[in-house]
């Protein structure tokens, strides 16, 4: 006599076995890929690239990400196969939705990779552009640019996989307004220095080569830009914010 219960349970047993086997294989493939990539010199090849720097800032590496993606790919196949064997869902409809969904996943992953690269590159470009500005407030601008790009990247990626991002868009608007308000207070010295710098460049009360005294510092003017004035004495160089020049006044020393 046929054991009906055994026939009923057989798909579930096979699905469980496939799932377990898939996770074991996925783990082993991930470990193998990591060792192969390391042996092939991939860590040295990607060292210093924008994506690798971003990955390291998140506590991982390019090799780790590739190895984990290979494992997750096999995990996904195992889960889908187990679901198919166990007949938990309408198979035809399920696979139709999967085939429609997978391209969006790939697009989301691609957007994330590009977003990390663009964010890292933006931080480097802004840092390089502001390198000559000797004001402490300026140091947080590159980080703000980087994380703003990453936030927008995650919004685009989440929208690709069907996540409703309206609430996140509202949060982005609040974030942008907060950056403007906080920035107005945090960078008031920066804004004042730039405004004074424009005045100094237009009026030119002193120029390069003049001997001046600003506060208790005296020396020869080496450089005047939008944000700072550089004054050099016999043994020291002073980098003075233009706001401070305006507040303390300028004394030109005549020989």
Structure description:
- There is one protein chain.
- The chain is of the alpha+beta class and about 260 residues long.
- It folds into three domains: about 5-90; about 105-185, Helix Hairpins; about 205-250, Roll (SH3 type barrels).
- It is about 70% helix and about 10% strand.
- It has nine helices and five strands, in the order H-H-H-H-H-H-H-H-E-E-E-E-H-E.
- The protein has helices at about 5-40, 40-45, 50-55, 60-85, 90-130, 140-160, 165-185, 190-205, 240-250; strands at about 210-215, 215-225, 230, 235-240, 250.
- A five-stranded antiparallel β-sheet has the order 4-3-2-1-5.
- The longest helix is centred in the middle third of the chain and has 39 residues, at about 90-130.
- The protein is elongated and about 100 Å long.
- About 15% of the residues are buried.
- The model is unreliable at about 1-10 (pLDDT under 50).
- Keywords: Membrane, Transmembrane, Transmembrane helix.
- This is Mechanosensitive ion channel family protein.
- Its main location: membrane.
- One of its GO terms (cellular component) is membrane.
- It is found in: Membrane.
């Amino acid at each position: 006599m046929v054991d009906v219960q055994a026939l009923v349970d057989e798909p579930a047993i096979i699905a469980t076995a496939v799932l377990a086997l898939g996770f074991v294989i996925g783990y082993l493939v991930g470990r193998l890929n990591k060792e192969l990539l390391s042996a092939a010199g991939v860590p040295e090849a990607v060292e210093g690239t924008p994506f690798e720097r971003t990955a390291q800032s998140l506590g991982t590496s390019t090799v780790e990400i590739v190895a984990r993606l290979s494992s997750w790919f096999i995990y996904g196949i195992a889960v889908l196969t187990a679901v198919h064997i166990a007949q938990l869902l309408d198979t035809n409809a399920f696979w139709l939705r999967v085939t429609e969904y997978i391209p969006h996943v790939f697009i989301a992953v691609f957007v994330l990779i590009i977003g990390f690269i663009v964010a890292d590159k933006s931080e480097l470009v802004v840092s390089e552009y502001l390198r000559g500005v000797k004001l402490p407030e300026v140091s947080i601008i590159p980080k703000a640019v980087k994380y703003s790009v990453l936030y927008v990247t995650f919004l685009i990626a989440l929208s690709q996989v069907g996540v409703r991002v309206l609430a996140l868009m509202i949060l982005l608007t609040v974030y942008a307004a907060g950056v403007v308000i906080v920035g107005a207070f945090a960078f008031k010295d920066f804004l004042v220095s730039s405004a004074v710098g424009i005045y100094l460049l237009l009026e030119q009360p002193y120029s390069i080569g003049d001997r001046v005294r600003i506060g208790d510092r005296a020396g020869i003017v080496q450089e005047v830009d939008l944000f700072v004035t550089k004054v050099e004495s016999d043994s020291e160089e002073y980098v003075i914010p233009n706001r401070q020049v305006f507040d303390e006044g300028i004394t030109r020393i005549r020989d």
